[in-house]
Amino acid sequence: MVLSPVIGKLLHKRVVLASASPRRREILSQAGLRFEVVPSRFKEKLDKAAFPTPYAYAIETAKQKALEVASRMHQKDLRAPDVVIGADTIVTIGGLILEKPADKQDAYRMLSRLNGKEHSVFTGVAIIHCCSEDGQLDMDVCEFHEETMVKFSELSEDLLWEYIDSGEPMDKAGGYGIQALGGMLVECVRGDFLNVVGFPLNHFCKKLVELYCPPRREDVQRVKHESIPAVDTFEIASDAAQGDEGCGPSRAGVDGHSGQAPAGPQGPDTNGLVENPPPFPSDLLDLIDGFKASKALFTACKLKVFDVLKEEGPLKAVDVARKINASVCGTGRLLDVCVALGLLEKTDTGYGNTRLASRHLASEGACSLHGFVAYHDEHAWTVFTDLESAVRQGPQAAAGRPEEDPSQSRDRRLRFMRAMHGLTQLTARQVATAFDLSRFTSACDLGGCTGALARELAREYPRLKVTVFDLPEVIEHVSSFHPEGWQPERLHFVPGDFFKDDLPDAQLYVLSRILHDWADDRVHELLSRVSRSCKPGTFTGPRRMMLNDDLGPVAPPQRVVT
Ligand SMILES: Cc1cn([C@H]2C[C@H](O)[C@@H](COP(=O)(O)OP(=O)(O)OP(=O)(O)O)O2)c(=O)[nH]c1=O
Predict the structure, then answer these.
(1) Is 145 in the pocket of ligand 1 (CB under 6 A)?
(2) 3-state secondary structure of 425
(3) CA distances (Å), 277 to each of 280, 353, 458, in order?
(4) Could you tell me the end-to-end alpha-carbon distance of the chain, in angstroms, rounded to an integer?
(5) Which atom of ligand 1 is least distant from the CA of 182?
(6) 526-535 long-range contacts, Cβ below 8 Å, gap at least 24?
(7) Which residues in 273-391 belong to E strands, given as ranges?
(8) What are the mean pLDDT values of the chain's consecutive 10-residue runs (562 residues total)?
(9) How far is CA 228 from CA 204, 205, 225, 384, 556, in A?
(10) Which of 306, 474, 479, 543 has its Cα between 20 and 30 A from that of 214?
(11) Shortest-distance Cα residue to atom 24 of ligand 1
(12) Could you tell me if 469 and 446 are in contact, meaning their C-beta atoms sit under 8 angstroms apart?
């Protein structure tokens, strides 16, 4: 397994290790992870008898350590980190859990118990993903444990006491440190060595792969037919048909798919051999069907389904229909599609938002993509409907369209700003922290729209003054995207056209989702203007830099240092 792409998944996140253990810090930094260390204040005093297994105890302790740090950091500045990692290592022998010795006598008791025998070392790990929204902290916990068997040699009393007098046992589970002098006590190890030292790096990386790089659908072994539990049909599962006659027969999905892959070649071929069926073209079918899923999502957003369910869910289809003023039959079907798309959950009490939907598809909230969805529904959808003629006739097809009336173009601009604001709020932190920009004191976000990225840059870098440069008709609406009386420090807005007017002076120019909009000659013109605005750097002074995040939030931004 190649590890760097795995660890790389955490590169743009603010990661905190909730541990005072120098070993854990070393293991994770040697793996290339960038993180802060915030030792947990959780007292390791859980009732061991309450846990069915020793590792369940270690996992719970690890989880509590991480949760304590996440909520403390959230309370402190209302912003929890993205990921908090907690761990707990214990030694077990004969059903007894050994943690750190209280004193030398305690260390002696522990080491005597381990002397000449094999014991288990468990490390429980909790990876917590945090999301602070509207002052609330949401946490997703992923937990696991690793066991390693360690066998001690027969050790003399003298050696045990000499080892105890070295002071090494005192901050270590079981009273020894395998990575140092304690290595002399150990005859053999079965399993992950680093797990004994305090952190099961290999298992951790596998978890990251599971979390961030799930296997492609075609790589997952198909579930045997008999093991698929019986499910209700569309009609039975949905309460939509209640009191609504016109719905027609039930169907298994949006488009009548049975949900099963088509049968492969029928039985043995003429030679009695079974032919290998060609790979099932799931990606292709997803592409063909994709527009239906998008439109279902757009429609549910437009009808405010996710807002209604965020406020009042879970609700039956009939109640949702009443609230959004739509037909019961249609609403029921739309809700079921949203369930199939993973946007809603359905239980006996009705339909409710998934966390994803409440966070991103309801119209309010710091992580809302509602405006972004609306823009795609109202603008991108229409433009893409004309794709064929655009390809046939070239860009002049678009140029030949009648001019929009000014009020329409104002509405369209506002919709566009809403879309960009939502998306940028979501990605700004990753862009702002992708590079260390602390050496700059001035930046200019060209086409910075509502200032969502500029605000994050100013927040991240206390010395940085940020200018947002955008068209006057954009700047005019900025205040409606921020709370009343919003007066950000070190952030100001300058109206202008970056193709015509002088660019504000700055050490750092940011072009976020700008360049893709223009043909090559325009891009060249814009970059030349930026280049001309950059004063020549010196070896001692701050250097000029241009940041372009057109590649999207996950790809590393391109950098040009002039
Ligand atoms: C068995 C063994 C444990 N240890 C260490 C790993 C852990 O740091 C420690 C077990 O105590 P833990 O309670 O797991 O961790 P900690 O108190 O050091 O740090 P924190 O609670 O803040 O996360 O024992 C070794 O260094 N070598 C060993 O061979």
Answers:
(1) no
(2) helix
(3) 8, 39, 57
(4) 38
(5) 29
(6) 526/446, 526/498, 526/499, 529/498, 529/499, 529/503, 530/446, 530/503, 531/562, 533/502, 533/503, 533/505, 533/506, 533/509, 534/509, 534/562, 535/505
(7) 344-347, 350-353
(8) 66 90 94 92 92 95 96 81 96 94 96 97 96 82 96 96 96 96 96 97 91 64 45 40 40 38 43 59 86 96 97 95 96 95 92 94 92 92 88 67 65 90 90 88 94 93 95 93 83 95 93 86 93 64 44 34 29
(9) 30, 30, 6, 39, 41
(10) 306
(11) 172
(12) yes
Closest ligand 1 atom to Cα of 178: 29
What DSSP state is assigned to residue 80?
-
DSSP code, position 50: G
Residue with tokens 């960038």: 34
Long-range contacts of 478-487 (CB under 8 A, 24+ apart): 478/449, 478/450, 478/451, 481/417, 481/418, 481/421, 481/450, 481/451, 481/452, 482/450, 482/451
Compute the distance from residue 340 Cα to the ligand 1 centre, in Å: 44
Place of tokens 């279902």: 296
Atom number of ligand 1 nearest to Cα 174: 1
Q: Which residues of 346-368 are buried (b: 16+ CB within 10 A; e: fewer)?
A: beeebbbbbeebbbbbbbebebb
Tokens of 418: 């809403």
pTM: 0.50
What is the CA(89)–ligand 1 centre distance, in A? 6
Catalytic annotation, residues: 88
Taking the C-alpha atoms of residue 62 and residue 377, their distance in angstroms, rounded to an integer, is 44
- Complex ipTM: 0.96
Q: What was the pLDDT predicted at 397?
A: 54
- How far apart, in whole angstroms, are the C-alpha atoms of residue 18 and residue 87? 8
* CB distance 419 to ligand 1 below 6 Å: no
The Cα 463–Cα 37 span in angstroms is 24
**DSSP assignment, residue 225?**
G
Per-residue pLDDT, 404: 59
Cβ–ligand 1 distance for 470 under 6 Å, the answer no
Alpha helices in 381-513 (DSSP H): 381-385, 387-393, 396-399, 406-434, 452-460, 472-475
Residue 395's pLDDT is: 64
- 503 to each of 45, 193, 477, 495, 527, how far by Cα in Å? 60, 57, 21, 10, 11
Q: Residue 42 CA: which ligand 1 atom is closest? A: 21
Please state, in angstroms and rounded to a whole number, the distance separating the CA atoms of residues 93 and 111: 11
Distance (angstroms) between ligand 1 centre and the Cα of 293 equals: 49
Q: Could you tell me which residues are beta bridge partners of residue 92?
A: 97, 120
Q: How many CB atoms lie within 10 A of CB 57?
A: 25
Q: Report the C-alpha gap between 70 and 342 in whole angstroms.
A: 27
Which residue is listed with tokens 């952030």? 491
Return d(Cα 448, Cα 474) in angstroms, integer.
10
Residue whose tokens read 């097809």: 397
Token pair of 441, please? 């004191």
Q: Is 174 in the pocket of ligand 1 (CB under 6 A)?
A: yes
